[in-house]
Amino acid sequence: DGGITQSPKYLFRKEGQNVTLSCEQNLNHDAMYWYRQDPGQGLRLIYYSQIVNDFQKGDIAEGYSVSREKKESFPLTVTSAQKNPTAFYLCASSAGGTYNEQFFGPGTRLTVL
Amino acid sequence: QQQVKQSPQSLIVQKGGISIINCAYENTAFDYFPWYQQFPGKGPALLIAIRPDVSEKKEGRFTISFNKSAKQFSLHIMDSQPGDSATYFCAAADSNSGYALNFGKGTSLLVTP
After folding, report:
1. How far apart (Å, rounded) are the C-alpha atoms in residues B110 and B40?
2. Over chain A, what is the mean pLDDT?
3. How large is the greatest C-alpha to C-alpha distance in chain A, in angstroms?
4. Does the pLDDT at position B37 exceed 70?
5. Of chain A residues 62-91, which have a CB less than 8 A from chain B?
6. Mean pLDDT computed over B39-56
7. Which of A42, A67, A94, A109 is the most buried (most CB within 10 A)?
């Protein structure tokens, strides 16, 4: 059963703690993306990676970090430097290249208390 | 800043009616324009996409109209059904950023019985 998995679905953390969100895909996709969704704001790009061991900052990368050590995995760390981390986080992947559909995971809702 | 502007923010349509959502962009490098549908608590799913070499694309009840000179594109949902009630996002992308998506802020569509 191919697709993108994100875990956990809900995550609660205390202010000041780093937290890592998992994203795994078994679609053999080269490109992976992280987006943040806030009510009324649409989705905004945090980071993206087109190949293993390479990634680029998106529009709102401050306070976040990523790694891409394996093709199928693209974890996102929300650091204590992120001023307002409570949001719905979505991971996506695509075959890369031109005009390829991005497939989204089910999302992780992070709440910082 | 938001690179894709979407309107209206919300829309109520009677069953059987036509739903129309509009988007505009400024970046002429954009060459891929998808529309995504999202249900509450879920990740977005691709509905239909268009490239700027065509002015219209139709898939079932969903049609994208594209006006390259005006830098505008729109989604038409014909014979709208209550099951179409969801949030719709337009997006735009180009090769300069690995086809990472620039999303509009979304339109919440409610189709009444």
Report:
1. 13
2. 93
3. 41
4. yes
5. 90
6. 93
7. A94
